[in-house]
Write a structure and sequence with these properties.
This protein is α+β, with helices and mostly antiparallel strands. The protein has a single domain (about 20-120), classed as Ybab, Chain: A (2-Layer Sandwich), CATH 3.30.1310. Helices cover about 45% and strands about 15% of the residues. It contains 5 helices and 3 strands, in the order H-H-H-E-E-E-H-H. A 3-stranded antiparallel sheet has the order 1-2-3. A hairpin with a 4-residue loop joins strand 2 and strand 3 (about 70-75).
């Protein structure tokens, strides 16, 4: 389905789109992460058993990263309230990069499990004597 551009003076303007509102984006992102954190609370113990929690150097946030490097949560701490949005975003990215470094590729884990099954196939249960 095609959309017709709006008519009128705004349509004739050759002004570029305004710069993205990073502050609004980060406020929305933080709100969504807080909501996800609250929804995950009933199974938090399962997540915690398989994840690492890494705090940003400036104590703005704690990232939850799986054993394979997947980011599954961000908890914003009080210093995040005072941080500039661009600085907060940079801190999160740097912390994630630090957390994900050295994590195994999940595809390798699948390959290792397959090779183990090939090398040591499961033994079928013995048939009952008739």
């Amino acid at each position: 389905m095609s959309q017709t551009p709006p008519a009128g003076p705004a349509a004739a303007s050759s002004e570029p789109d305004p710069a993205p509102d990073l502050a609004a984006f980060m406020r929305d992102f933080r709100q969504r992460m807080t909501e996800l954190h609250e929804r995950a609370e009933p199974v938090r113990h399962l997540i915690d058993a398989t994840c690492d929690h890494i705090e940003s150097p400036g104590h703005e946030a704690v990232l939850t990263v799986t054993a394979t490097g997947e980011l599954v949560g961000i908890e914003f701490l009080p210093p995040a309230e005072k941080a500039e949005p661009a600085d907060l975003a940079a801190a999160i990215i740097a912390t994630y990069d630090r957390a994900a470094a050295g994590r195994p590729d999940p595809g390798i884990d699948v390959l290792v499990r397959a090779l183990r099954r090939i090398a040591h196939p499961p033994v079928p249960p013995a048939a009952p004597d008739a």
